[in-house]
Amino acid sequence: MSSENNFEQSMQEMMNQYEFNKIHTGDIIKGKVIKVTESEAYVNINYFSDGIVPKNEITVNEEDNLTEILSVNDEIDVMVLKTDDGEGNVLLSKIKADSIKGLEELEDFYSKEKTFKLLVKEGVKGGAIAYYKGIRIFIPASQLSLAYVEDVKDFVSKELEVKIIEFDKEKSRIVASRKIIEKQEAEELRDKLWKSLKKGERREGKVSRIVKFGAFVDIGGLEGLVHISDLSWSRIKDPKEVVSEGDTVTVYVQDIDMDKKRLSLAIKDVNSNPWNEVSKNFKINDVVTGKVTKFIAVGAFVEIQPGVEGLVHISEISEDNIAKPSDVLKIGDQVKVKIMDIDNKNNRMSLSIKNASENSKEFLKYNDESEEVTIGELFKDKLKNFKFD
Questions:
Q1: Full-model pTM
Q2: How confident is the model at residue 330 (pLDDT cuts 50, 70, 90)?
Q3: Nearest-CA neighbor of 69 among 118, 61, 45?
Q4: Residue ranges with strand state E in 191-286
Q5: Which of 164, 174, 262, 353 shows the greatest Cβ crowding within 10 Å of its Cβ?
Q6: Per residue in 137-181, pLDDT tens?
Q7: Kindly report the CA angle at 369 between 363 and 372, in degrees rounded to 5?
């Protein structure tokens, strides 16, 4: 038997003994890193010769340090580029193996609507670019966050949990979204918050927007309306008299409509109704000073203490006949009023301006009836020294 035949037989016996892998170009196999240099990595692939992975098949960045990417004993996926590089070694690629494996994983994520994490590498026109195992993924600016994104560069170097919303293997187009996850999280938080709400309880919130009829307050993911009448016990014309957008406020839960998803809130302290003290502070026939706060067709409202208003009927504004309250009054006027009636049950009060004046007919009538003055009493001082025959 020739020496050449002996060598082949010995190699075959050795391969049979150690059960080496059978490899082919294009195969993706697992290997263990046995050495890392500045330019390449050596990998044991359970073959009769080791595999070599050049730096450009490990990373696309020339400035990367391989020792910071790979360590001895790391198990990695590699693709067989050549079974023999001319020097008896197997030429391998980590990038290509990662790309194929990664694409399979991304397709699985897409079909099963799984979430995964990405590190944003750069901001471009219209969005941001991230990579998953070397595969380029685009995140549109509109999908970076549930909130408005002013500058996509603010997301560079940030790790985001995303979900794939478009996957086209043929066009190598993969689009991901962070917004869709935040939206789902916000909905779950809102549902949890709805279930935890109780009428009458206090909550902290932030004024999110102001409208003509009130203010919307965010109480941690759930927005409720504070009607203008519930901003203050005093009458106000504009919500901005009481709150500003962005203010942190304490609110009271007034009404919860789960079916329509409507939440009614109050900023005025519902436990400190000023009408509760009216019977202690005022009584019928008292004359007090108040401020004109509002006109209606039948009269004017006058506030006699913060949060306590009474109606002065148009017939009780002046001794003269007037067509409308604004003929003799202006909003903000300080006027004297007489309390004619108090309805504590319905928080209503009837007032009179004309009967609060000492020149009023009622006042003069009262004094005429209570003090009858004779002509003799009226002129007694002038006639005391006069002698009659």
A1: 0.55
A2: very high
A3: 61
A4: 202-211, 214-218, 223-227, 248-257, 262-266
A5: 353
A6: 999 999 999 989 999 999 999 999 999 999 998 888 999 999 999
A7: 120
